[in-house]
Amino acid sequence: MELIEKKNDFASRFSRWNANEELRGYPYVENIHTPFTPVRRALPMLNLALVTSAGAYIDGTDAFDLESKDGDLSYREIPVEVEAEDLRYAAKGYDPKAVTDDRNAQIPIDRLLEYQANGVIGGLNNVWWSISSHIPNAERVAAELAPAIADRLARYDIHAALFIPASPLCHQTLGIIARCVEAAGIPTMLVSVDARLTDKVRPPRTAYYNGEFGSVAGKPNWREYQMRVLDESLRWTETFDQPGSRKLAVDLETSVEAARGER
Fold first, then answer.
1. 229-236 contacts, C-beta under 8 A, 24 or more apart
2. In the chain, what are the domains?
3. Tell me, what's the pLDDT at 129?
4. Tens digits of per-residue pLDDT, 205-254?
5. Which residues does the chain have with pLDDT short of 70?
6. 150 with 186: CB under 8 angstroms?
7. C-alpha distances in Å from residue 246, one per residue of 41, 114, 205, 209
8. pLDDT score, position 261
9. Residue 107 in contact with residue 56, Cβ under 8 Å?
10. pTM of this prediction?
11. What's the burial of 260, exposed, middle or buried (CB within 10 Å: 0-12/13-18/19+)?
């Protein structure tokens, strides 16, 4: 299955795009078909990968290139032991304030380690993957970056992968990568705050809600909110029996909590 259907059409439209930062006239990918791999292990038995497009990198190393028209097609493989204060962000298309205040708003390492400690998941993989928040050339994502990420996940014997985009454009980027990873036999779940865009690219599984770019994994410094986003998203990884998208109940639950004066 093609990661980008009508690839030649995208290439033609992309070549005419004027590369403005506001993405006016950007030729977003539109797919019809979707790969799908059933989950073969229960959550408490699987090795979970985290892939984020917040543009995170370790302080003192090279930042992602945000100026290229194609975008930076590299990735960073970051050990889970790296502390939040040692991370920096090459941010484009989203405000990095939330993830700088609390990385779990976009990179929920601490929340997933809690799940690991409580036996909700078998384990969080010992490294996670960071890619750029701004990669306009979707054709190169499909040809270069997506297969590279799929290969790395396979080498770590990943059983399922959680994708968390940060900006509008990287909802498309991670959707394409999720399609590739799923086609390689690894089940995926993508958390989205732009269902219109992710429905176009058609990642295999999408959990969406009315959140904000830059804090897609939940509001900063609000552990319970982040857990609500992650809990339903991860449990749905098991229950999807075909490609699709579902709306999280996090908005309703948060409204009830606010009405009770609990936040």
1. 229/191, 230/108, 230/111, 230/112, 230/115, 231/120, 232/207, 233/162, 233/189, 233/191, 233/207, 234/43, 234/48, 234/115, 234/120, 234/121, 234/162, 234/189, 235/43, 236/189, 236/205, 236/207
2. 35-259 (3.40.50)
3. 98
4. 999 999 999 999 999 999 999 999 999 999 999 999 999 999 999 875 55
5. 252-263
6. yes
7. 21, 25, 8, 9
8. 59
9. yes
10. 0.95
11. exposed
CA dist., res. 128 & res. 107, Å (int): 9
C-alpha–C-alpha distance, residues 134 and 32, integer Å: 24
- Size (the chain), residues: 263
